[in-house]
Amino acid sequence: MRLALHALCGLLLIAVLTWCLPAMAQQPQAGPNFQAWDNVARLAEDAIAAETASNERFERLRAELAEYRSDFTAGSRINAERIATLRSQLEALGPVPESGEEPADVAGRRAELEAQLETLRAPVRVSEEAFRRADGLIREIDAIIRERQARRLLALGPSPLNPVHWPRAVEDSLSILRGLALELETLEDPVRRAQMRENLPLVLLLLAVALALIIRGRAWAGFGLSYLRRWGGRGSGVWRFLVSLLRIFLPLTGLFVLTHALRMTGMAGERLDQILETLPVFGFVLLGFRWLAERLFARDDDDALIQLPPGKRSAVRFYMLLLSLLFVSRGVVELLVGFEDVAPATDAVLAFPIVVLIALVLAPIGLTLRRYKVEADPESDDAPRGVGLSRVVRTAGSALLLVSVVAPIMAAVGYAEAGNALLYPTLVSLLILGFVVTLQRFSVDVYGLITGDTESARDALIPVLVGFALVLLSLPLLALAWGARVADLTEVWSMFSRGFAIGDTRISPGDFMTFVVIFAVGFAITRLVQSTMRVNVLPKTRMDIGGQNAIVSGLGYVGIFLAAVLAITGAGIDLSSLAIVAGALSVGIGFGLQTIVSNFVSGIILLIERPISEGDWIEVGGQMGYVKDISVRATRIETFDRTDVIVPNADLVSGTVTNYTRGNKVGRLIVPIGVAYGTDTRRVEGILREIAEDQPMVLRNPAPMILFNNFGADSLEFEIRLILRDVNWIMAVKNDINHAIAERFAKEGIEVPFAQRDVWLRNPETLQPRGATPPPTAEES
Fold first, then answer.
1. Measured distance CA(16)–CA(520) in Å, rounded
2. From CA 349, how far away is CA 161, in angstroms rounded?
3. In the chain, how long is the greatest CA-to-CA distance?
4. pTM of the predicted model over 0.90
5. CA-CA distance, 128 to 588, in Å (whole number)?
């Protein structure tokens, strides 16, 4: 019966909501409560004027002011579309004549539109004024808080090395321990003991589970890692990373169970309850330090992200374990000191040994990291992998060395706040960066698992972009580590959300995303249309390849232009106010980029007129080769040496270009040949004609022509002139003809002469040495 009543009530509630929600949705949204806003603003102004409020009070006031400021930002956009419509109507009426006289109906309509515009602008102006007031108050509060932070950091406090402060530190420490001892005396309370006996079985069970997870959790996770390492195979890095998280998750779960079991005993007082509450946090710090050390400086060389020698990796893991213990020790001291109202000197004395020990541990870590370098492969000319990471590691090592020296000195002098602000943020920053490196390696493994190529995944672009994104995401954490307030980050996000102004238009991140999405969709549609035209439509026409490429390129330019225009329009960006600035810039840009503009226009002319096309054999500027690509700025030609020559499009339009294959591939080949004097010329002509007609690439119409061209100095000169079906085969045909001529002439006994010269000595006696007897003449002999 009761279930039926509950079900009926639920149905009635759904019916009421179904009926009420549409009516509620139709009601106009209420604007900001300006009376409540004025009260909050006055409170903030009074607090700022007095400067006596605490930082917590200022932070609460700032949060309220920021909330109102967001409302005012939305209020400044009220009636935006209607205001734009009224302005366009006023522009349609034209400007008021200089004489001030215009037709009564036009003047009346203008006055009516201006009255409506002023009415609509009134709440916008009020919101804008309130926004500026809230924004100014927020800046003043931020300035006060920053000034207080700076004063606290630079304040000179008690030196922990001064023996005067030691007795007070011992007294405060004993007071804290006595307070904890008083809470332990409550164990004798009969009520609490009865509660503990009642929950004892469950408490014992939870304690057993907790101790098992804490003691054996890491070992169980280690068994899984060992199995995966032996198994190997595709994606093993991903699974090893996920299983390694169990080394944190299992013991941490045990700590939560242990905390819950101890609380169930009912024996924990207020201070012990706070200690139990922070116990999982301290456990997470210890486990996180150790997990990160095992990921960065793993025992196995393949798993280590920082490739130090095995001995140094083991040492760094040990040092990081000590750092985690000291880090937790500092947290324990802060927790215990918070139980009592201790003197600042007590805090300085208790914290100083921890600072010194952390510095002593950081120094050897810094020395090890500072000497880290990646060895290059002597057999490869490529840069070794991990050079960028090695620079970051060496820089981190130098920073650790510097901090390990400066922070203890500052704490010893009395600048404890400044020393802590330098030491602990440095340590936290290194942990954050180490975690980023670990996640980036995990992204590499995931990419290798998806693509199936683990080796090339490390050099792929996607993991690099993921690493860049991880660095950007870590920036807020680094800012918080170095003392930035959450309000500072929200202020940056608020400024980013409000956008920036271009003329009378404010561009917000939403407008930017709208622009990106519309342009991306337009670009994708353009590429799809181009691909469809190139693959499916144009090949079925009779258009040559050059015309097809011209149409596809033209579609690309038009599509990208339309996508940009639609994206700007869709995002609501009004660039009319930039027209004057753009006109002024265009003059300077015109002089500076006139060569690029000339090449661009020439590229469009080439695509429209198509004097050359892809695949044509051309000669321009002394370069000969095939056209491989015609882009907007230049044309790429591949020479016969298989080298690419980039020719500006302006040279192709304004210069002389020889196109050997434009329109058709028919071309003429001329082969010169010489024979010895005395050879039968008619016989030579017949042999050469037979050789030419035997070539399959030679056209029969017009028939090959054999010319007895000239009586040369050394030979009778002939020429074979023939027309080829495809001029691209000109060198191959010439080679075959020369081989055929050599074979036929050798067979027919026709001599191909080489150049000969007879040398006559006019006075040969001048060549004889002095005193030598000249050779006898023919008459003397």
1. 44
2. 8
3. 159
4. no
5. 38
Question: Residue 14: its pLDDT value, please?
Answer: 36
**What three-state secondary structure class fits 717?**
strand
| Cβ density class 493-528: b for 16+ within 10 Å, e for less | ebeeebbeeeeebbbbeebeebbeebbeebbeebee
Q: Which residues neighbour 737 within 8 Å (Cβ) at sequence distance 6 or greater? A: 671, 691, 692, 695, 720
Structural contact between residues 597 and 590, judged by C-beta atoms closer than 8 angstroms = yes
* Count of Cβ atoms closer than 10 Å to residue 569 Cβ: 12
Residue 758: Cβ within 10 Å count: 4
Give percent of the chain with pLDDT exceeding 70.
82
Query: What is the spatial distance between Cα 662 and Cα 674, in angstroms, rounded to a whole number?
Result: 33
291 close to 250: Cβ distance less than 8 angstroms: no
Q: Is 760 exposed, middle or buried (0-12, 13-18, 19+ CB in 10 A)?
A: exposed
125: helix, strand or coil: helix
**CA 768 – CA 70 distance, rounded (Å):** 114
As given in the structure block, the two tokens for residue 193 are 């003991």
Structure tokens at 433: 């960066």
CA distances from 779 to 411, 766, 770 (A): 124, 20, 23
Tokens of 495: 């400024």
Question: Who wins on pLDDT, 414 or 543?
Answer: 414
Cα atoms in the 13 Å half-sphere on the side-chain side of 466: 19
Query: How far is Cα 291 from Cα 321, in angstroms, rounded to an integer?
Result: 10
- For residue 672, report the phi and psi dihedrals to the nearest 5 degrees: -85, 150
